[in-house]
Specification:
mainly alpha; transmembrane; DUF4760 domain-containing protein; 154 residues; single chain; transmembrane helix; membrane; 6 helices
Length: 154
Amino acid sequence: MNWEALGAIAEMIGVVAVLITLIYLAIQVRQGTAVSREAILRNQTDRNMDNSKFIAGTPGLMELYIRAMDDPDQVTREERWRFGSYMYGMFLDFQEAYHFNKSRRQKDYWWPMIRKNVAFYLSRPGGRAWWKSQGRNMLDAEFVAFVDKEILQG
């Protein structure tokens, strides 16, 4: 066997080794992406569950939420601030989900549910009033534009 043949064989082995390495790395990246998406989903689900427990378990908060959503003019100044704080927290979560969805870091089935929640909150008089008076000014311009165009005008 001559040196050229040995060189060609060594080069072929090197190419195969690089291909195996690239395939391995691609599998690792795909698995890492899946784990990351699962963590995002779990985090969002946990926060939504915590929010539900909080509003249901905090004395007087559910009653305030219902009154504020139905008729924002029938709540006191302090209640309006409590309701606004609650709404801000919810919409920060919605905004995060919007950006995760846009960057494809979120499971596809999660965003339609979040979008329905945004639409529900803003379908109520108190939700719309909060959005117009506070929410639009407190959240990221891209998310605000999306909500204004796709949810409120859609």
